[in-house]
Predict the 3D structure of the following.
Amino acid sequence: MVRILPMASTLKPSLSSFSSFRFSSSIPSRPISSLHLASGVPQLHSFGLRASKLLHRGGNSLSVSATGNAAQASTSAVEENVLEWVKKDNRRMLHVVYRVGDLDRTIKFYTECLGMKLLRKRDIPEERYTNAFLGYGPEDSHFVIELTYNYGVDQYDIGAGFGHFGIAVEDVAKTVELIKAKGGTVTREPGPVKGGKTVIAFIEDPDGYKFELIERGPTPEPLCQVMLRVGDLDRAIEFYKKAFGMELLRTRDNPQYKYTVAMLGYGPEDKSAVMELTYNYGVTEYDKGNAYAQIAIGTDDVYKTAEAVKLCGGTITREPGPLPGISTKITACLDPDGWKTVFVDNIDFVKELE
């Protein structure tokens, strides 16, 4: 992965680390040439309108407004094709990336208390950072965690926008007892979720990141949720559906506690990782801190993905193209609430793992 510094501003890639960024205020971004799908369409539209105005000014009674209409129809057709392509794209949540203050301490907690495996570790001394990848299965088929430790930085601000990660376990009470025995912090004892029957508990890791333990039978994807808070749930749902191609799996409104949640993903909750978006009544903005970084999602085409994000109101922070020095193609964006996502070319991702 690439290094992630406390205050993000610029991407700096490393060879086998591409689902996240290295951010530095002192290192300028490197220009990446980008290919935009149907980049000539807006010009065609503008040309049609200008031609119509010129003919009318010349006293020609013949209306050529049809030219502009045709251009608009062409633009709409291209947009529709891009959004239809998103629905068919081969997408999967790959990584969730965040910063920690003591890498060895966090690895020990995740492996001994949460049952994860250390999949790989990469130290880049010249760039003063280390990455560690942990999860419940290989990266080519499982959603995993990418931890970033920046030399000399031992504390980060998690902020109020990040919520928690979800882990499916077969016995919540037993897992909680193990965590307590290892000195972990339990912030909610095992019990039914509010307004439901599913048994859950909440714990904190050594850096203060919250994990929801969800009692569930055997599952191929134990690392099953990333919860983020949003200021407009309907807007967020539409964006994740159209731009990211996710399916709205369910929503749950809790008026008693004044919040609503929406689950979105690329497969059912019991078999794949999902996004849990939470809207708290009346809260439209959150402090995101500098600890949580982003998720990475696989795609067959980062160029079309970037076009879809733009069409849906997202902000491209990294134009699509290969990372300098390697062939891995990525694009990065912000959703309407400012949460960051990196899209990674599927074929390049597999090559990197090999």
